[in-house]
Amino acid sequence: MGNISKKRQEANKLVDRTQLYTLTEASDLIKKVNLTKFDASVDLHVKLGIDPRKADQALRGTVTLPNGSGKTKTVLVFCKPEKEADAKAAGADYVGLDEYITKIEQGWTDIDVIIATPDVMAIIAKLGRVLGPRNLMPNPKSGTVTPDVAKAVEEVKKGKIAFRVDKFGIVHSSIGRVSFTPDQIKQNAEEFISTLVKMKPSSAKGIYMRSISMASTMSPGINIDTKSISSN
Fold this sequence. Notes:
The chain is α/β, with parallel strands linked by helices. The chain has two domains: 16-68 and 161-228, CATH 3.30.190.20; 75-157, CATH 3.40.50.790. Helix content is 31%, strand content 21%. It has helices spanning 6-14, 23-32, 81-89, 98-105, 121-124, 128-131, 149-158, 182-198, and strands spanning 41-48, 60-64, 75-78, 94-96, 113-116, 160-164, 170-177, 209-216, 222-224. A hairpin with a 5-residue loop joins strand 8 and strand 9. Helix 2 (23-32) packs across helix 8 (182-198). The longest helix has 17 residues, at 182-198. It starts with 5 loop residues before the first helix and ends in an 8-residue tail after the last strand. The mean pLDDT is 91.
């Protein structure tokens, strides 16, 4: 194990690993333990009492953070010519079809979100092998397959994020930046957690919200008391 920097040692002293913090406390503490000189991401890691191997428990969805994500996302829209003007007017960074299919086939994936109209999904299906592993393939469950591309683009630009549970039953997501105020971080976290609670599968048994931790890039994790924010 490498040596721990002095800054990390000081940050570690501020976090009691044996304590469960309230969301308010964690949202304030996350700013104090930040080690980076850049505007680091604030992430939530939520362990759920589900079995992702079961189709009805493989959670996947979206949430619009009330204070945005703190990141300007690059959006590509796959659509036919009649929808291009709407997508561009809404703020899409790239709009088209054949040109961008070719670029992606050649290895270009310099985008954060891809939105597509239903009538082009059969055409872009061949990109699944490239886009699927990068979580970029448009999907109706995440709201990225829609005839209303303008609305979808606007939502992404305003802070709508997509998430999905991993094979261990954990949902990882950025919910803001350390430059946000504690209240903004808390509000975004509450909205994200509330969305997960609403999505609880009816077949899930036992404690649903197993554990929650908050961390910024390169900072120690802060364990949050699930009982302080939700009913299990």
